[in-house]
Every structure is written in C-alpha cells, then in structure tokens.
Design brief:
A three-stranded antiparallel beta sheet has the order 3-4-7, covered by helices on one side. The chain has a two-stranded antiparallel ribbon with strand order 1-2. It is an alpha+beta fold. The chain has seven helices and seven strands. It is flat, with a radius of gyration of 27 Å. Strand 3 and strand 4 form a beta hairpin. The protein has one domain.
Length: about 190
C-alpha cells in the first residue's frame, strides 16, 4: 500500500519563497547523505587505483612512441578474467598561436605534419542576439571575431610514430613533451 505524504504549508507571512515540509522520509535523508559520502570516497579510491595503472601504462605508451612504434590500446589483466582497457586518443588541448614561430623553429618543415592552424568563432559580448538574426549577411564581423589556435592533427600519434626516423633528437623530445602536456587523459574502460 502506498504511503501518503502529509505536507505542511508554511506560513507565507514569514517572508521569502514559500516552502513546504515533507514528512515520512526522516530516516532516508541521513541514509542518502551517507551514500553520497561513500560514493565520494569510492570515487577517490577509484581515481587512486586508476592513477596507479596509468603511472605504469602511460610511460609504456610514451616510451614506445619515442622509439617510433605506436600502441593505442593496452589490455590490463584482471584476476576475474575481465580485463580493463586503457585507450589513448588523438585528443589534445589547443595551443596559443603565439607558439607557432618557436614550434616551427624546432620542427622545421615537419611542423605542418603535426599541427594545423584552426579558427573558431565566438560571439562578442557586445553583440545583440536579436539583431544578429537580421544582420548576418555582410555584417558578420560585427558579431563574431576570429579566435585562432594551433591544433594537433587528427592523426598526430600515427604521424609521430611513422615519422620517427625523420625527426632529429630535439624534435622528438619536444614533440613528446608537447604531447605529454596536451594529450587528453587516456580512457580506462571496465568491461
């Protein structure tokens, strides 16, 4: 049989937004708080365990890549015979375009194999959104400004591995450092 909730109305003369008390769940509220606390603790423990795995796998991937071979997927064996997977992705944070000249100096003609200049459009804070609908045509630049960035190419890891022999030690070192700093965290997938 469904439990009937008894709602009390608060005196609206107290000011502020009206609130109503709900009874019948007094024992559940602390339980939910305890579950939330346990979930946070478990998330922390999971992140600690993930960190231990990544501290082993990430250097393995980077060491291989520094030698010219690429492995993007690592299988982490498990006692329960359901291995986890660490998956590296060609996803990186964008770099400020002011980095282009020194990066080109390091990479020389190979710069364009690893990086591309991108432009995103953002609306200026002073733009009137309602007016935008009327004005898009020739007045586009009044509402949008170019935001340039340098992006790693879509196949950066494959390029890095495939061009290993064409890179000098300085280029390899810099590419590895840029990759380490800007690559998205690898996934840890549990089956």
């Amino acid at each position: 049989m469904a439990k009937v909730l008894k709602l009390k109305e608060l005196d609206s003369a107290k000011g502020g937004a009206e609130k109503a008390e709900v009874t019948g769940f007094e024992a559940m509220v602390p339980q939910i708080r305890e579950i939330d606390k346990q979930m946070e603790e478990l998330k922390g423990k999971r992140e600690d365990l993930r960190g231990i795995i990544m501290n082993k796998v990430v250097p393995m991937m980077r060491e291989g890549l520094s030698r010219g071979y690429l492995v993007k997927t690592y299988i982490v064996n498990s006692e329960d015979e359901k291995p986890a997977t660490v998956l590296f992705k060609n996803m990186y944070s964008k770099l400020d375009p002011s980095n282009e000249a020194p990066m080109r100096e390091v990479m020389g003609p190979l710069f364009d194999k690893f990086f591309t200049k991108t432009t995103d459009y953002t609306m200026k804070s002073s733009a009137n959104k309602n007016e935008l609908k009327k004005l898009l045509g020739d007045r586009f630049s009044e509402f949008f400004e170019d935001v340039e960035a340098l992006s790693f190419t879509k196949e950066f890891m494959e390029q890095r591995a495939g061009m290993h022999d064409q890179l000098n030690a300085n280029s390899r070192k810099n590419l590895d450092e840029w990759m380490a700093k800007h690559q998205a965290n690898p996934d840890l997938r549990m089956k």
